[in-house]
Automatic annotation (TrEMBL):
Keyword Transport: yes
Organism, as annotated: Blautia intestinihominis
Keyword vocabulary terms for this entry: ATP-binding, Nucleotide-binding, Transport
Upper lineage: Bacteria, Bacillati, Bacillota, Clostridia, Lachnospirales
Family statement drawn from the similarity comment of this UniProt entry: Belongs to the ABC transporter superfamily.
Entry-linked InterPro entries: AAA+_ATPase, ABC_transporter-like_ATP-bd, ABC_transporter-like_CS, P-loop_NTPase
Protein name (Swiss-Prot/TrEMBL): ABC transporter ATP-binding protein
């Protein structure tokens, strides 16, 4: 797996207060990586460090395979597009005029403007003044600016901030298709897991400056298993056998034939069901509670524990 962004033990303190703590971020090439965390977790600060806008207190950043230093910083950032904080753009100019300014600043051929307008669905409105744009259109213009020059990496800080549900939906589709439509790897931050779920494949969850989970959405879902309920024909024998396996269980209050088990792995569950069947307990039903991703996220960030 090639990483497009790697940080090593990145730390940042402001006036002695740690806001990013030993951050080891690894963003695989070709993915949409969701950088999640509650307000104030340190997402923007980390992204600004990646873009050379803020100096880390310690640690290093590797972008596109190269450790960033004063010599290669500008060259690396030329291959990176970003949208940090609210969308920029001169309100009295059209989207096309704004894009021309950015293209000139970045020394990019004006031919690229039509391509990026097309990607963000602003071709029809390209000659309207940005002051007349909705927030969603301004956000899309911000992304078009970031896309100029076909960067290999896009860093987007809360691009869905302030958008209405339709705007969020549109932004999701746009970002999810980015690796395929532009070849870019995307790092996108948000404080809402629900918003990210449909557009990211990899996730990093930051809390109080620390990474508490990094992995795929599937890996995060592994933490979604809640308790398990097994309906059996012989309850007493079932309890005995489970206790002998080290599993404490008891019948549910209103369903005396259903045993309530704590959360266990799929492998352990399969083994228990086999043992119960071999001992003629008669397993006739099995249900497992699942926590929503939002619940997992909340329980992780409230406990602040590391699960990766
Ligand atoms: N220039 C600064 N000087 C002092 N403290 C700062 C500075 N920039 C950020 N901080 C503090 O660092 C912490 C992390 O802020 P940051 O903006 O990185 O969090 P965030 O995860 O992006 O939050 P949000 O989702 O609210 O944008 C906050 O407590 C913030 O007040």
């Amino acid at each position: 797996m090639i990483s497009v962004i790697e940080t090593h033990d990145l730390c940042k303190s402001y006036n002695g207060r740690i806001v990013v703590e030993h951050l080891n971020l690894s963003v695989p090439q070709g993915c949409v990586y969701g950088f999640l965390g509650p307000n104030g977790a340190g997402k923007s600060t980390s992204m600004k460090i990646l873009l050379g806008l803020v100096h880390p207190t310690s640690g290093s950043v590797k972008l596109l395979g190269q450790t960033m230093n004063e010599e290669n910083r500008i060259a690396l950032l030329r291959k990176t597009g970003s949208l940090i904080e609210s969308p920029s753009g001169y309100l009295h100019l059209t989207a096309r005029e704004n894009l021309k300014i950015i293209a000139d600043l970045k020394d990019i051929d004006h031919k690229d403007i039509d391509r990026v307008l097309e990607i963000v669905h602003l071709t029809a409105d390209a000659n309207r003044k940005v002051g007349q744009y909705s927030l969603g259109m301004k956000q899309r213009l911000g992304i078009a600016m970031a896309l100029l020059g076909n960067p290999r990496l896009l860093i987007l800080d809360e691009p869905t901030n302030g958008l209405d549900p339709a705007g969020i939906q549109e932004m999701r589709g746009l970002i999810a298709s980015m690796p395929e439509s532009t070849g870019a790897t995307v790092l996108i931050s948000s404080h809402l897991l629900g918003e990210m779920e449909q557009m990211v494949t990899q996730l990093g969850i930051l809390d109080h400056g620390k990474m508490i989970f990094e992995g795929s959405l599937q890996e995060l879902r592994k933490h979604s298993r809640g308790g398990i309920q097994i309906r059996v024909l012989d309850v007493k024998k079932g309890i005995d056998i489970l206790n002998r396996q080290g599993i404490l269980t008891q019948p549910m209050t209103h369903h005396l034939d259903i045993l309530q088990l704590p959360s266990i792995s799929d492998e352990k569950l399969a083994e228990l069901v086999r043992t119960l069947s071999e001992n003629n307990v008669g397993v006739v039903g099995l249900t497992s509670e699942t926590k929503s991703l939002e619940e997992i996220f909340l329980s992780l960030t409230q406990n602040g524990r590391e699960v990766a």
